[in-house]
Amino acid sequence: MAASDELPRVRRGPLYSLYAALRRRAPQVSAAPPEDSALRVAYRGRAATVVWDGDLGQYAWEAGGQLGPDAEKAAELVAWALDAPATSPSDG
């Protein structure tokens, strides 16, 4: 099998779940796939870093403050904190 025939590596973990939720709920927020156990997010000059706190089992701001264990809710909170528009699940 040639290298070009290989499937891309599947990424898993809480930060990838949050990244996917941000892409769905707040696509205008700038976010790159997580690196070094952190997800960097930005919107219109405001930037922050989100980490997964494995001890507490929830998302947290790197600077301090919890976002909770649910990726969808954390995505809403990230968008809100950055003053970015976000859709709710009922917006479909």
- What's the main sheet like? 5 strands, antiparallel
- Work out the helix count: 2
Strand pairing plus helix content: what structural class? alpha+beta
Strand content: 15-25%
Number of distinct beta strands? 5
Approximate shape: globular
- Topology as H/E string? HEEEEEH
Rg (C-alpha, Å)? 14 Å
**DSSP helix fraction:** 25-40%
Straight-line N-to-C gap: 41 Å
In what order do the strands lie side by side in the largest sheet? 1-2-3-4-5
Q: State mean pLDDT (0 to 100 scale).
A: 90
Low-confidence stretches: none
Description:
Strands 1-2-3-4-5 form a five-stranded antiparallel β-sheet, with helices on one face. By secondary structure, it is of the alpha+beta class. The mean pLDDT is 90. The protein has a domain at 42-84. The chain has helices spanning 14-25, 71-81; strands at 30-31, 39-43, 46-53, 58-61, 66-68. A hairpin with a 4-residue loop joins β4 and β5 (66-68). Helices cover 25% and strands 24% of the residues.
Brief characterization of the structure:
This protein has 92 residues and is an alpha+beta fold.
Give the topology.
Layout: H1 14-25, E1 30-31, E2 39-43, E3 46-53, E4 58-61, E5 66-68, H2 71-81
Antiparallel strand pairs: 1-2, 2-3, 3-4, 4-5
Helix pairs in contact: 1-2
Provide tags for this entry.
alpha+beta
